[in-house]
Write a structure and sequence with these properties.
single chain; four-stranded antiparallel beta sheet
Length: about 150
């Protein structure tokens, strides 16, 4: 009887180890999925200096423009007010690369944000996008620190 328990115990222990290895592998894949394409950390990918986002005249009221290179979205509300936000998703730090109308869609987990307000429209993100300073200078939209 004790030989059975020992064999049974070894089998359970072996199963536990194999399950743990499988869970660890899957968790590692999940963590990799949360990183930006190319594996680079993206939380530092917001502008560190003013960024030219194009001609002010090209952004209509109620519209938005995504600048993938600088991870910024700029929008103009119905009353003409400009807003700019970092397009680094607040859920897992992925750069948002898709703008549908005025909805930003994160490619990593499907979070959606309103480009006019920065607010979360669809989880898993729960925090709004980081607002950036924005101004116009010489007919151009400029956003980021120092704008």
């Amino acid at each position: 009887m004790s030989a059975r328990r020992t064999a049974s115990h070894r089998t359970a222990s072996r199963r536990t180890v194999l399950r743990g290895a499988a869970v660890t592998s899957v968790a590692g894949l999940g963590a990799a999925a949360c990183t930006a394409p190319g594996g680079a950390a993206t939380t530092e990918a917001t502008p560190t200096a003013p960024v030219d986002l194009g001609a002010e005249s090209e952004l209509a009221k109620g519209g938005a423009r995504l600048d993938r290179e600088h991870n910024v979205v700029v929008s103009r509300s119905a009353d003409g007010t400009l807003k700019a936000y970092s397009t680094i998703c607040t859920h897992a730090g992925c750069p948002i690369n898709k703008l549908q109308g005025t909805t930003l869609v994160c490619p990593c987990h499907g979070s959606e944000f309103d480009a006019l307000t920065g607010k979360v429209m669809r989880s898993p993100a729960t925090e709004p996008l980081q607002e950036l300073p924005v101004k116009t200078a010489n007919g151009r939209i400029v956003a980021g620190p120092g704008a």
